[in-house]
Amino acid sequence: MSFPTKIAVVVRDDLPTWQRLNVCAFLVSGVAAAVPELIGEPYEDADGTKYLAMFGQPVLVFEASADVLTAAHGKAVARGLPMSVFTAGLFATGNDEDNRAAVRAVPRDRLDLVGLAVHGPRNAVDKVVKGARMHP
Question: What is the pTM assigned to this prediction?
Fold first, then answer.
């Protein structure tokens, strides 16, 4: 099935695996919150056990160097695409209020990005993530 939009996550390639997974989870929650129509219907197994709804389309996960990640951020901003970001400073905070304060304290061009998630038209998202590689 082909979708008119794409959800892509780019994580920095020098993070330990646990941090990559943590960053990815936080980033996609931002997309889900901003674009609730991307969420499908709840799941249920054959025994009637109910499960939470998830995205109704794939999420593509990429890895990239800090430079490629910064370039992707700039492209997403220039295109006006909805985006969530995760900076290195967020590893030292423990709650949403402190997370937002940590991002707000740094000018956009000085953010120490470790990940971003973006949603938008397929071709626009492809241009944003150009230079990143699919996460193994």
Answer: 0.92
